Each structure stands twice: as structure tokens, then as C-alpha cells.
Amino acid sequence: MKEKVYTRRDFLKDSSAAVMAGSLYLNIPKKLFAQDEKKEKVVLIRDKDLLDGSKRVRSEIISQMLDQAVMSLFQTNDPLEAWKKIVKPKDIVGIKSNVWGNLPTPPELEKAIKKRIMEVGVSEKNISIRDRGVLSDSIFQKATALINARPMRTHHWSGVGTVLKNYIMFVKKPWDYHGDTCADLATIWKLPIVKGKTRLNILVMITPLFHSVGPHDFSAQYTWKYNGLIVGQDPVAVDYTGVQILMAKRKEYFKEERPINPPPKHVFLADTRHHLGTADPAKIELIKLGWQEGILI
User: Fold this and answer.
1) Residues in CB range of 236: below 8 A, 6 or more apart
2) Between 273 and 38, whose confidence is greater?
3) I need a surface site. Which of 77, 100, 116, 229 has the fewest CB within 10 A?
């Protein structure tokens, strides 16, 4: 059975999102949805053996998945050649992770990223892995390149916590961006500390959280072994892909259409209002690698 894609039309039909539909899409010229424009590549890679019997991430497999994803993204058969297109030896690199206790960025992934960056020639002293505290981290303060990696989950304030949301720690008062369900998170990406520096976005889809109620809510029953990574240079396209999968899982689990609440409109506004990237499926080339069973997209 073909999974439903959350399209422009569906977005307008969604009752929870209808209140903002006019400002998002009704007045957008149709030419903006033309399919002959350059597409943003997004790689979705999965491996059914990623987790061991204790549900721990297998280091060697996630390293292989990361290599395969970047090789596909940059069209090369050598992972180091791919990483040389991401960072340069003289770069100062911040790896922006996420430490939320229930679903953090896997340390095995952090280590795999750092290993490849060092193999390109970046000195270890010029690499930092951090979530909270990036504003006081000397490496992040002078970084020339950022790698953004965090798990996918539903979120009380923004609908979903994804790569766009992961940069909220680059502002002193994150709560200032919670208004209107975090509609303008993309503005953070235009601040000097991050603007133009992000070389790669990795949305971790190993055990995503597809349903939660209230701040910091977590229940393992609303996670599942998806065993995937979504990798790309366009954070909006990466997040859009993750939202599609989460919505498909919600439909599968609840046996009905169950819109994410609040709606993740910041992903769409990052495109239509802030022009940070694309949330138009006609402009996204989704490359699917590895395990295909239960892919949901």
C-alpha cells in the first residue's frame, strides 16, 4: 500500500494547520512548485541490524551507514573524498548534537563523525561536540563549519524536534522562539554564529518518538525501531522527510489520520517565509538506501 505524502494540498486540508494556510501557500505563485528546478538531495539509509540485542547502537554499522549516505550525497565511491567536500583541514568544526536524556544523539554517531573529520585533516583541538553550552564553547564561537546531528521526536512547543530546532541553543533565550509554535525557528539559522556554516545535517531516525503530550513527555511505547538516518545539506528538506515518516507512523499506529499537534509549521515556514531550504516534495530528490521494509515513505 502506498503511503500518503504530506503534500501542499494536504497541508491546506489539515484542520490544525488551516489557520495559517493563507500566509503559507495560498498566495504562492504556482511557478514556485515547478518540477524542472534543481532538486535538493536527501539520503535516507536504514539497516535492520543497527541495534544489538540490548538495543545499543552498533558502532561499525552506524559508521558504515554514515559513509554510504555521504558517498551517495556527494556522488563518490570513497567516504574520505565525500568528507573532503564537507570540511577542509583548516576548518574549525562544531558538531552540534542533542543531549535530551530520553533520546540523545548516539555517541557512536558522534564518534563516527569526528573520526572522519579528523581523517580529512582537521586537528582534534579544532573539533568540539556540544549541545547545551555552545555559546560558551570557544570552538563553536569561532567555528567555520558545523555538522548538525540530532534524533527525531515529537515536541510540545514546535510539533517536532528536528535539525531545524537543534540550533535553538545558539540563542541566549530559547523560549523567545516558542511563540506561535516556534514558527520562526529558521531565523536562528541566519545569526552570525551559524549563518552559512552548516555543511551537513543528520536527522537520527533510529528509534524516533512519534507521539507525546506535554513538555518533555516520553513513552517508549511511542517509539519504534526504524534504524535509519536522514542525511542532507538542506535542513528543511531533511526535516520535511522526517515529518513525512512520523506522520505515516502515526497513521499506522492509530489506524487513522492523526495530525501532529501542534502542527510542525516551522518546517514549512522555513521554506515559504524564511527561504532557508525547501519543503516542497517536487524539489526534493529522496535517495533510499539499505533496508526497505517498513520504510513508510
Assistant:
1) 164, 186, 267, 270, 271, 276, 277, 278, 279
2) 273
3) 77
Instruction: Write the CB contacts of 208 (distance below 8 Å, at least 6 apart in sequence).
Output: 151, 152, 153, 223, 224, 226, 242, 245, 246, 249
- Distance set, CA 10 to CA 15, 25, 136, 244, 263 (Å): 10, 11, 42, 12, 13
Domain range for 238 is 40-290
| pLDDT tens per residue across span 128-177 | 999 999 999 999 999 999 999 999 999 998 999 999 999 999 999 999 99
- Which of 238, 230, 102, 114 is closest to 165 using CA atoms? 238
- Residue 196 in any domain: the answer is yes
Considering the domain boundaries, does residue 6 fall inside one? no
- Residue 93, domain member (yes or no): yes
CB distance 250 to 241 below 8 Å: no
Q: Can you read off the three cell numbers belonging to residue 18?
A: 488551516
The helix (H) or strand (E) run that includes residue 62 is helix 59-74
Q: Is residue 12 part of a domain?
A: no
The sign one gets for the Cα dihedral 155, 250, 295, 271 is negative
Q: How many folded domains does the chain comprise?
A: 1
Burial class (CB in 10 A: 0-12, 13-18, 19+), 28: middle
Looking up cell 531565523 gives 187
Q: What is the pTM of this model?
A: 0.88
The tens digit of pLDDT for each residue in 208-222 reads 999 999 888 999 999
The rounded distance, in Å, linking the Cα atoms of 175 and 51 is 35
Contact (CB, 8 A) for 239 and 266: no
Mean pLDDT over the full length of the chain: 90
Do residues 226 and 269 lie in contact, with contact meaning Cβ atoms separated by under 8 Å? Answer: no
